[in-house]
Specification:
Number of strands: 11
Strand order of the largest sheet: 7-6-8-5-9-11
Radius of gyration: 24 Å
Strand content: 5-15%
Shape: globular
Order of helices and strands: HEHEHEHHEEEHEHEHEEHHEHHH
Structural class: alpha/beta
Helix content: 40-55%
Protein name: TRAP transporter substrate-binding protein
Keywords: Signal
InterPro entries: DctP_fam (IPR018389), SBP_TakP-like (IPR026289), TAT_signal (IPR006311), TAT_signal_bac_arc (IPR019546), TRAP_DctP_sf (IPR038404)
Organism: Glycocaulis abyssi
Length: 371
Amino acid sequence: MDRRTFLSGATIATAAAATACSQETPGDVAAPAVNRRRTRRLRMVTTWPANFPGLGTAADTTARLIGEMSGGELEVQVYGAGEIVGAFEVFDAVSNGVADMYHAAEYYWQGRSPAYNFYCAVPMGLTATEIMAWVEFGGGQELWDELSAQFNIKPFQAGNTGHQMGGWFKREINALSDFRGLRVRMPGLGGDVIRALGGAAVALSGGEIYQALQSGAIDATEWVGPWNDLAFGFYREAPYYYGPGFHEPGSALAIGVNLGVWESLPAQHQAIVRAACRAANNQSIAEFTHHNGIALQTLIEDHGVQLRNFSDEIWREVGRVSEEVVANAANADAMSRRVYNSYVQSRRRSREWANVSETPYLQMRELVLGG
């Protein structure tokens, strides 16, 4: 008997029992109500350390909301990186049914398909609100479902860091020539851009970055933004803080649910998971925006951090190289090309709207209030 048939039968039996009990004589005493609700427990593995600010808390928020919205019928236990499987093993764990769901950044899976980069961030790509628009309304979710179904996974947006910073540098970067030989911690397609500029991109986990900066193994690093960067103390080793970042303009985080688990959920529980992921996504953007503003002030006023921006010359070359790097990744296979085409079309629409709305507004707000 499947779960839905069981629940339907249980509902009928409970209703019949309730009818029988209602036909009691005046002297009868009603029996205490018994809660027969069943709880389904799901295990979520993540690429983040347990309770990690912003990234890890987005996973915790999603799990909590699923439990609250379901009235306890779904209970999600969150496991940090290494508690069940390693950080970069969560995809396979969910795909193979070792765990029920993961919380991660999808560009970690670019080895399975370059298309996954577009569901987190690509150089000169979509901002947080723009990637939400593409996934929710521009065809992105349908392509994502098709991509991930190949790996037995059902994906959702469930967090976003907002715009990330360009990184921490030990020395100023004033010209393109300053990138030659520069050792920068930057993974993914952003790292490919650094290589194209003549630098050496290095992939390091979060826990390895500070020591690498301190020892001189790297000359610069990007991480996330002021909130997380302050906690890591990068300002002690690299005083020049460049922003905005070109590589991750609105990095989306994701929930991936084992497809068999997803299809076994009744429609009501599927709706709850969808709604919880959307709510966690919105809360994550608000959380990062709030804490980044506070942390940036602390970095400047208490630690003397010097904010910098890349020159127009650098930005033009970064833009040119980024388009080449991203297009080359899209040419890897037919699925990546379809995702890329959809992504670029959505970016074009978003740019046209931003050019007459948010962009000039922010410029005018700075002109009026900046002094």
